[in-house]
Specification:
By secondary structure, the protein is mostly helical. It has helices at about 10-20, 30-60, 65-80. The chain has one domain (about 10-80). Helix content is about 75%, strand content about 0%.
């Protein structure tokens, strides 16, 4: 695992400490890694939505039903959660 040194603002450092003190996380590193995983998952979802919007704008209307689109979205979310 790569080791990094980062600087935090006082409010962010205090928030991290509070999360660890509440025993939600065992260390600041664990919490930071979880936050990064969440951000990556959110980015993947945004990119998927953006790609769908671009595809729709460039291709006109989709032939997919709203149920199919919802299923694809749920599958992406399930995949993201499983790879957490």
């Amino acid at each position: 695992m790569a080791r990094q040194s980062i600087s935090l603002t006082k409010p962010n450092d205090e928030w991290l400490k509070a999360q660890v003190d509440s025993e939600e996380y065992s260390s600041k590193s664990e919490l930071v890694n979880d936050l990064i995983r969440q951000a990556r998952k959110q980015q993947a979802q945004v990119e998927w939505i953006r790609a769908k919007l671009i595809e729709s704008e460039n291709g006109g209307f989709t032939d997919e039903t709203k149920e199919q689109i919802l299923e694809q979205s749920k599958a992406l979310l399930k995949f993201s959660i499983q790879n957490k």
